[in-house]
Amino acid sequence: MREDFSRTLSLLRQERGISQRKAAAELGVSQALLSHYENGIREPGLNFVTRACDYYNVSADFMLGRTLSRDGAIIVSEELYDASQEKGSLKGSIMATLQKKLVVNTACLLFDVLGAMGDRTAITAAGSYLSDALYQLLRLLYRAAGGNESYFSTPANTTDKGSVEADMCLSRAKYTDALEAFEGEFPNMSDQVLAEKYPGLAQSMAQVLHGTDERVSDLTK
After folding, report:
1. In angstroms, rounded to a whole number, what is the distance separating the alpha carbons of residues 172 and 43?
2. Domain with CATH 1.10.260.40 in the chain
3. pLDDT digits (tens), the chain, 221 positions
4. What are the φ and ψ backbone dihedral angles of 183, each rounded to 5 degrees?
5. Please, what is the Cα angle at 44 between 40 and 45, to 5 degrees?
6. CA dist., res. 26 & res. 20, Å (int)
7. Where does 39-146 have alpha helices with state H?
8. Which burial class, exposed, middle or buried, applies to 167 when counting CB atoms under 10 A from its CB (0-12, 13-18, 19+)?
9. Taking the complete model, does pTM exceed 0.85, yes or no?
10. What CA–CA distance (Å, rounded) separates 106 from 134?
């Protein structure tokens, strides 16, 4: 059994936000046995692999780390693979690789659609909004890792007081205004059309949207 299986099995459970005990009960095994599977101590049989794939709604290829596409389609770009190792071996942490795939693919779809519309204001505003989000995450990482704050021209206390969030709000407002003022024909954003035009990207976008919907919905419970 591939080493990726145990890691993916554990990550899928954590992604769903359920305890090992709950997952084990619903998968029909003891918690101890599931723990062994997730830690690579024991190898499961085919029946368990099939149940796990059905339970987490993923393909066996995804569960075994052979693809980043949950439905089993081989849509991963070469940059996400390390050709110096075993074919299909993922670089670094599988969780980081999966998150990169979701975010990068979704951004690619967004800018492909905006590019087709040809609205420069909307494109610029979207780029500024996403850049602000990346700026904040990277600056926090720099700080936590002991990086040199002089790399940034904006003082730390200014960003800590919400200056970047303010720029994000402004960028979102410009983006909204641009879409409202757009006089051309908007692209068809139906699931079927996007899936046909952007087969791999649309799948990642759907996961990003549904995942965010779930998190936001949980805030209101």
Report:
1. 49
2. 3-96
3. 556 788 889 888 888 889 999 999 999 999 999 999 998 899 898 899 999 999 998 888 878 876 666 665 544 443 433 333 434 434 446 667 778 888 998 999 999 999 999 999 999 999 999 999 999 999 999 988 887 777 888 888 899 899 999 999 999 999 999 999 999 999 999 888 888 888 778 888 888 888 888 888 888 77
4. -105, -5
5. 160
6. 10
7. 46-56, 60-63, 94-117, 120-144
8. middle
9. no
10. 15
Q: Which residues pair with 90 in a beta bridge?
A: 81
Q: Which amino acid is at 181?
A: A
Q: Which residue has the tokens 């641009």?
A: 178
Per CATH, domain 3-96 is 1.10.260.40: yes
Q: Residue type for 44, please?
A: P
What is the residue type of 196?
Answer: E
